[in-house]
Structure formats: C-alpha cells, structure tokens
Amino acid sequence: MNMSNRLDAGPPHAATVLARIQESPTIFTLQLRLDDAAAQAAYRFAPGQFNMLYLYGVGEVPISIMSDPEERDLVGHTIRALGRVTRGLAALKPGDRVGLRGPFGRGWPLQEVGGCDVVLVTGGLGCAPVVSVIHYVLRRRERFGKLVIIQGVKHAEDLIWREQYDRWAKLPDTQVLVAASEGAALWPWHVGRVTELFNLANFDPGCAVAMMCGPEGMMRSAADALLARGLPESRLYLSMERNMQCAVGRCGHCQFGGAFVCRDGPVFNWGEVKALLAHKGF
Amino acid sequence: MLSSQSDRAGFLPLAQLPSLLARLRERGYQCLGPTVERGAIVMRELEPPDDLPRGIQAEQTPGRYRLTSDPLNRYFAWANGPQAIKPHTFAPKESLWRAERDEAGKLQFAAVHPPALRQAIIGVRACDLAALALQDAHFLREGRRDAHYAQRRDHLFLVAVQCAEPASTCFCASTGDGPTPTAGYDLALAELADGFVAVAGSGQGQAVLDDLNLALATPQQIEAARQQGASAAAVQPRGLPSRHLRDSLMSRLEHPRWDEVAARCLACGNCTAVCPTCFCHAEADTPALDGAASEHARMWDSCFVEAHGHLHGFNVRADIRGRYRQWLIHKLATWHDQFGRSGCVGCGRCIAWCPVGIDLTEEVAALTEGQP
C-alpha cells in the first residue's frame, strides 16, 4: 500500500506480460510483473483494489487486481475486451510491455469478517474483483466461517472459471450458487435471476459479511434480499464501477455524490451509497 | 479588505499604476492583466508601457456578454471576463508524463514538469479568489499535492480589485464571496476617481507596497472604498436562496424541473469551461508519428460531455437531464461533502456564457420552490 504514493498520478512503471490466459471468447487474464525488480518486490495490494494499466500510445484503463496479495512475483488482471484500450490489451503476448500504476482505492473489509461467514455476490465480470476474495479466503480457510459464492450471468456462456466453480462447490463449508438468465445445453445450474437463489444461501445473518460486485441493478436487488434475510446493513459491502482516469481523486469523472470512487472506494459500505443508488444517473 | 487593515492602507494615484507593474517585474514576475480580445476581457501578459484598458464595462445578461464604455473612465469597471485565474494554475492542457518504446519493445516512462513561471495577475476579483481557494483545496489536498498545479500556484502573485460595477449576472454577495476581496490576495486595490486604496494581504504584497512608498490612504478614501463595496453588493439583482442548499437539493433529485432544464440545455459545456471552480479533466495519449514516444496529457473536461460518464460498456449519464443534474448537484450540494462549502462563488459566468441563457439562480429557485 506504500506504493500508492510512489506510483501516484504517474508516470507508470513498465511491466512485462508473463502469461495471457483466454478465459472466454472476450475475457482474458494478463499476469504481469513490474520490470523494476525492487518495485515488484515492494508492490503490495489488498483484494478489491485496482491498477491503472497503460497500453502504449493508446491510454489507460482501471482494472481490478485478481491475483492473491501474497503472490509476490506477479499481478493478475482479468479483462473484457470491449473498448480501444482493452481490445489492444487483448492482443498482447507474453513478453510484451504495458505500463502499470497502483494499487488504488479501498479494498474489501477482510479484516472485519472475523470468524464469520463470507457471502460473495457477483454478476457478470463482477466476479473478477471477488475471485481475489475467494482465493484469499480459501488460502486462509481457518480464519473464516462458511463461504457462499453466488454468481449470476446473463448467458450461460458468459460464465468464466467454470471448472473453478465446480471445484469450489466440492469444498467443505463452501456453497456455490450460479444462475444464468439464459441457459444452455448441459447448464448444470439455475436458469433465471440470481436473486432467486438467495433463499438457498446457507449463512448465519448474525455473523456474516456480504460483498457484492456487478451491475448496480443486480446489487440493489441482492442487497434487498440479503437485508431481508437479516444481514445488518453495516455488514454489506459493494464494489462500484465508475469512469476512472487519474485514479487519485482528481479528474472528477468517478464522482458518486461527494465520493471519489477511485479514492474513497471502489469498495463502499451499503449505507454509504444506498441513497444515491436509488437514483439513476449518478 | 480595507476595514481590517485600513490603518496600513496606502493610496496609489492613478498615474502610478504602471509603477506597481514595474515593481512586480523587478521582482521577476511576468505581469498578466486585463486586455481586450475578441470582445471580452482576457488576462494576457501586459507589456510596458502598461496599456491597461480603461473606460470599459462588461455588460452581462443570460447568454450575453458585451463590452461597453464606462462613463467614469475607470480601469476596473468591467466585472469579469470568461476566465481569470484558473487557466494559470490548472492549465487547460498539459503533459503529465511521456512514454518511450525502444526497438525491443521496452517501455520507459518519465514525468513531464511544467515550466517554472513567476506570474502576477492584476485585476482578479473576490469571486476569483474564493474559487482559487476551492481549487487549492482540491489540487493541493494533504498527501496528494498535484505537482503541476503546485508549481504554478506557489509562484503566483495576485493583485485583487474590489468590484464597483458588478454585472447583472453577478451574485457573489449572496454566496458570501464578494464583491470586496477579504482574503487570498497579495495586494488588493479599490479604485476611486483619482487612484487606488491599496492594502497588502501577504508579506510579499507588503514588500511591494513598501517599495511603492505610498502615502497613507485618508479616512475619507477608505470610507469611499467601503461604501463602494457596500453598494456593489446591494445592486446585485440575482442571488442564491441559501449558502447551504445541500439537503434541499438532495431531496429533489427527481424534481420535474430537471427535465425542463434538460430540454433547453445544449450540453455544450460552456458553463464548466468558464466556471472558476470546475476541476474535471480528461487524460489522453498522443503518440508521436514515428511511434517511438507517446505523451500522456490532461485537459479540461466537462460533465456535460457524453464521455464523462462513460463506463466499460455503458454510460452513467446518457441523457442531458442526468448531466445538468450532475453539474448542479455537485456544485451546490455534494461540494459541501467534499470541501465543506458550496462550489459556487457567485461569479455568474455560467449564466452569461450559456448560449441559451440558462440561469443557475433561476434553476435553483425553481427546484427549491421557495423552500431552500
């Protein structure tokens, strides 16, 4: 976290692509290592934080970090190829260079969980920032109670890391609930809205922390469902997405009410943002 | 000004105005001041023998700005121009860093530093100073000082002028930011018929005043300046109903007036470009033609531009209603959460420079329906 001061508003650090993994037709993962060995060794982040990745000559994009914070020799990002920069990043091969600055923002409140249950609710590619939490919990399993992973996608083929969901579902004290609005042949999970699965979620509302990431409409419905199950509002968190360009609370694009999402978020407590989330356009 | 430090106020005769600029130049300052450019007052470098425009007023109404003649032939009877301090501290466009790529594809990055300038700006207004204090709060935030802004800000000398002829669009009295400068200046002047009551607001300002070796202002001159400020406040026809509109506006986020103003707003961004407190900027890259380098620059941006609310795959504010509301809510409501006060200093520029004459004070009145 000390790095955030050194990498600040720029310039970025050069980083090399170690590996590129195609996760779905449009989603890929880049594993990066900072070229400066000392900078790589000093790099620390918390799950839920993000980096600004720079594609030479094109520009920067904010991408959440999905690798494990204790994996010290690489920084992983899962990206959907959609805009000018991300389509260019998709074309990179191992050995190619990018720029990286970060980490930025406030990550997930993993210290607050105590020994309680962890409920993760994600929609679409929202799973990327939360996968770092899944890895974090699984590597430190004794520190946490039950792990409930609830994932919704629009189309069945949008689900990435399918084998991992299968594997997680077989672990003790771990529940995986997946829904696709539109199913497909051999789709083993629920067809319908992800919020229809909340009554099946097995957690203790009196001792749980929920973390959500995904489309805001989905998160609003999920929040209603979780609060209805008796989860206190103070234990409900979400990661927000906004247009981030400077990443240090300066350029103004990511403002959500008085908050700069890049600096004050991207992870917020539900109570901090619920009032404004009820209005479209902020 | 003037009242609290009136015991040390000097009097600068009109004929000695050039010597003020000469003293500033001796101290290494480039002097910027009012010039007439394409029908507006624009701050440009003044060249000796210091032809400050004289006898000009700036008549402003919603959607209209015209220079007219001042029957009293004063130097500072124009209320304001489209810009004052902001472009000289927060540059409209500047490089932040540069990337170079060698033949092996290796990247190297280097920060780009702005030139070290010592600038004095002559003729800034109380509203401009209030706006600068807000820009300082944003760009010089504890622990996150913006090096580019700081480089310019640290070497700025500000000569403020009391407003005697506010435009019809001015409402600084209601925001508490004018028309008489009270803080944030190095020197403040109040223009009377035969000269200026001058007070220092900083050690540097005092040193310049000492160099000028002025006679003390008389009690009559100080009183005349005070009265001039009071009447400039009293004549302002516009105002905001309160300095604390946060809760009132946040309770009206779905008010039908937003649709009504959206139907008139062109989303051109003029209001944000002339607003002295707006700080949004975009970052963009420009590669060199030979592909060996690329500049990463920031430039003023506007929440009225569609791309401002662009996210991966969708837009947060696809319609103008959302963008006008974002601007007004930020300026008058959520600014309080960020900086402890409203982001409006009552300069009225957004009213005058709006091509369709949307008047922020009128919109606020309609939104709050007399219950601020």
What do these coordinates show?
The complex is a heterodimer of chains A (282) and B (372). Chain A contains 8 helices and 15 strands. Chain A has 282 residues and is of the alpha/beta class. Chain A folds into 2 domains: 102 residues, Elongation Factor Tu (Ef-tu), domain 3, CATH 2.40.30.10; 168 residues, Rossmann fold. With 372 residues, chain B is an alpha+beta fold. In chain B, helix 9 crosses helix 11. Chain B starts with 9 loop residues before the first strand and ends with a helix. At the A-B interface, strand 4 and strand 6 of A face strand 6, strand 7, strand 13, strand 14 and strand 15 of B.
Brief summary of the model shown:
Chain A has about 280 residues and is an alpha/beta fold. Chain A is about 25% helix and about 30% strand. Chain A has helices spanning about 5, 35-40, 85-90, 125-140, 160-170, 215-230, 260-265, 270-275; strands at about 15-20, 25-35, 50-55, 60-65, 75-80, 95-105, 115-125, 145-155, 175-180, 190, 210-215, 235-240, 255, 260, 265-270.
SSE diagram, text form:
The complex is a heterodimer of chains A (about 280) and B (about 375).
Chain A lengths: L2 H5 L5 E10 L4 E8 L2 H6 L7 E6 L3 E6 L10 E6 L3 H7 L6 E8 L12 E7 L3 H13 L7 E9 L6 H8 L4 E9 L7 E2 L16 E6 L2 H13 L7 E4 L15 E2 L2 E2 H4 L2 E3 H8 L5
Chain B lengths: L9 E4 L3 H10 L3 E8 L2 E6 L10 E6 L2 E6 L16 H4 L3 E9 L5 E5 L7 E6 L1 H14 L7 H7 L2 E6 L10 H4 L11 E6 L2 E6 L2 H10 L2 E2 L2 H16 L11 H5 L6 H8 L5 H5 L6 E7 L5 E8 L9 E2 L2 E2 L4 H20 L9 H4 L7 H9 L4
Parallel strand pairs in B: 2-8, 8-9, 9-10
Antiparallel strand pairs in B: 1-11, 1-12, 2-3, 4-5, 6-7, 6-14, 10-11, 13-14, 15-16
Helix pairs in contact in B: 1-6, 9-11
**What multimeric state do the chains show?**
heterodimer
When the domains of chain B are counted, the total is 2
Biggest sheet: strand arrangement of chain A = 10-9-8-7-11-12-15
Helix content of chain B: 25-40%
Tell me the strand order in the biggest sheet of chain B.
3-2-8-9-10-11-1-12
